[in-house]
Amino acid sequence: MPFDVILAGALGVSILLFALAGGADFGAGFWSFLARRGERAKEQQQLIEQSIGPLWEANELWIVVSAVILWSAFSPAFSAYGTALFIPFVLAIMGVLLRGAFLAFRIEAQEEAPGAYRFFGEVFGTMSIVTPFFLGAAAGAIASGRLRLNSNELPIDGFVQPWVGPFPIMVGILGVATCVYLSAIYLTIDATGNELLQEDFRLRGILAGMALGALGVVAIFATRADAPYMWEQLYPGGPGSILMAVAALCLFASLALLYFRRYEFARAAAIAQVSAVFCAWAFAQYPYLLVPDITIQDAASPRSVLVAMSILIIVYVVVLGPALWWLFRLFKSHASSKREES
Amino acid sequence: MDNLIAARGVFGMSLSFHIMFAALGVVMPFFLLLSQGLYLKKKDPVYLALNKKWTTAFAITYAIGAVSGTVLTFGLGLFWPRFMDFAGPMIGVPLSIEVMFFLLEAIFLGIYLFGRDLLSPWVHWLSAVPLLVGGFASMVVVILANSWMNTPVGFTLDEAGQVADVEVFRAMFSPSWYAETSHMTVAAFEAVGFAFAAIYAWGMIRGRHDEYHKKGFFMGMIVVTLAAPLMIFSGDHTARQLAANEPAKLAAIEPLYETEAGAGISIGGIPDNEAGEVKYDIEIPYMLSILSYDDPNATVQGLNEFPEDERPNPLAMWWAYDAMTGIGFFLAALIPVFWIFYWRYRGVPTYRPLLYAITLSGFLGFLAIELGWLTTEEGRQPWVAQGVMRIEEGYTLAPGIGVAFIAFALLYLFLASTLIWLLKRIATGAPPEEEVEEAQRQEESEGAYAL
Ligand code: HDD
Ligand code: HEM
Ligand code: HEM
After folding, report:
1. Which of B14, B56, B107, B168 to mutate to test the interface with A (most CBs of A within 10 A)?
2. Alpha helix locations (H) across B80-176?
3. Using CA atoms, how far apart are residues A110 and B365, in angstroms rounded to an integer?
4. What is the residue extent of each domain of chain B?
5. Which InterPro entries does the record cross-reference, listed alphabetically (chain B) (predicted)?
6. pLDDT in tens, A119-174
7. Which residue of A lies nearest to B111 if distances are taken between CA atoms?
8. Distance, in angstroms, between B52 CA and closest chain A CA?
9. What is the DSSP secondary-structure string of B255-267?
């Protein structure tokens, strides 16, 4: 069996799960950041906390899962990313550190200290924007072909050039926009029972979706200019472009569904949209882990490790699947049904 | 700043920061289970009040543990990419198992923290069991990775020096695995147990002699009564493991410069690398040979057995080792003293000097953990993987690591001070009487639960 491809698939799934979790905090940090004035700012803040409080730590770990799959099964790629993309990754993990800590501080500080509560929120919100941006930029650098290594495995163009370019920056911005869009839609469902709040996030979801669409169009040009390998697969009419078309349709559908207040369906469409973009990306990047120098096969660990890791992935699913199911059932279906009762 | 030094500094700093929360993450679920279990059995609202306080504190410390752990995960690739390139296949499997247990812990943490009003009391209690299992298992497994670095086995290299084949299980359970994991487990329980006792001892010193403080204090003391004496045996076992598998480390921590039959142990003193001897120390003859090999005349290898550029520097960690063992014996000695007072007071003693000593122990336990890791990690120098890869071959070649070091130092400082401020507020947030009453009220209004 091609264990290396299976593990690359598992790697992809864990990154997708991280993205679908809106970069761990369901992207809600951005909305929390904006919720300052207006009568409902406080309510919005509380909704956001309730909505992500029980879940963010589990969500956050999907990115850690990606990291361990990378270093166990494809250690040379992990090493190359860590060296060449040192700057964006360090900034991203600093963001992770502050974001999570200050979210937790904030939830616990609620009644204790209003001034601190506000300050903790500022840090949390800012870092929710910083983190997906730099992770996106790093991903953009990996896929663009801008990052070339010399024989010592150091980046030929230095440590800044690979990720400061139209395509990586665009992917960073898209990363933020995706989290923001997803979270607004998730929050419409969590706000069930509070019409006004739900309307707030409905409007935000529509705006964020439109922004995402506009950015997507700009990204087409950035891809053509700056990411030749991606473009080869994804250009309009190309082999991967069908997935992009599906994504565009899903985005449009999710906006329409939001407009008609069909929130559950809008959420499904948004998840489909992100998944489609992701599949298109994976399709375009295959078989490279670092375009165009490191392939999945180049980087794969000895077979015994690949087999052990593949078995472990199954154990992950068996052990964590039911636990996650319970977690989401408790807090996602329960929260809304409880509010409906009251 | 030199990039190698900065990379070591940033990583050591991050681990030293993380380990405190990791220890809390393993042992606090135990205290949560204990206090809530006692409450459910005895219906004494004091236990519920304690349980709630601890849950709040755990929510925060766990979060810091989780995010600082995420930093470490990426940190291995960011600061030690060439080491990970080499060692990833061997230590990656245990670390991947670790992450599974973390996920288990994180998922049930969400359930436990926010599920108090949604679940029936016993189901809520049960949901803390995976927290303990997840924390404990993840700690053991992550130390398997560290033990591989100390005693790397289970792989073959090809002519190019690349890893050709890996025996997954042998690499996971390298010779030092048992000594390290068991020692760290006991250490976590000892340090956190004393920290819990210390918090309430300090409260009692400040005049709070109520049930809330006494019960909190007593639960901590029960845990350390088991852990502290066990530590002496565990420490002894760990040192024997060094004699068998890591002789250079053992020689450096003693320090023993020349190979010797019937080697003694030196207590205190100052090692002099130039002269190759320890000055101003008290020597207990034959003790090192006895402790390492059960034979007063056994030969113990000194630093002179190893090439000059492969010797760990005793000055870097001999004091840490001595201090750790000193703390270990001090803490173990406190246990009988406590029980004598307990017997004389017919209950939790409020004798102030004893309470002061236990308050101090709350810090000493964590200090010993840090010192122990310093011993382990500095004692392995100059290797990142003992005998296989030197640290100069493992660190990152990216520039500006010094800047990252300073930035992380500031971040940890900022986080730690905010955390302490918040925990202090929570600790003194409400007088215990009110909390007990609130717990009582809550119990009365406990109504329908949805599972
Ligand atoms: C509460 C904390 C604590 C206490 C009281 C002690 N230790 Fe310890 N020690 C640790 C906490 C610790 C640790 C932090 O957990 C270490 C670091 C690596 C490890 O596995 O455990 C450690 C490492 C460590 C090592 C190095 C192991 C290696 O590199 O593989 C030795 C030889 C000892 N210890 C020996 C002792 C002795 C003889 C003690 C006397 C009672 C003692 N320790 C008390
Ligand atoms: C949490 C407990 C730990 C602490 C406090 C700790 C502390 C340290 C310190 C102080 C250093 C710098 C040593 C030096 O350069 O002189 C270091 C190095 C290192 N540690 Fe640990 N360590 C811990 C556990 C671990 C674990 C579990 C791993 C493996 C997964 C690990 C991997 C490393 C690596 C790769 C280095 C760099 C190489 C070296 O300097 O030898 N450490 N650690
Ligand atoms: C001896 C050293 C270590 C011990 C004992 C340890 C133990 C733990 C424990 C018990 C937790 C749970 C967090 C909590 O409950 O507060 C944790 C969290 C974490 N640790 Fe460590 N760890 C160590 C070193 C490392 C290293 C070297 C890494 C990275 C390679 C790492 C990665 C993580 C991650 C990613 C988390 C977050 C898990 C979560 O969100 O639940 N740890 N660690």
Report:
1. B107
2. 81-114, 121-126, 129-150, 168-172
3. 32
4. 3-249+313-445
5. Cyt-d_ubiquinol_oxidase_su_1 (IPR002585)
6. 888 888 888 888 889 999 998 888 887 888 877 778 887 788 888 888 889 999 99
7. A327
8. 12
9. T--S-EET--EEE
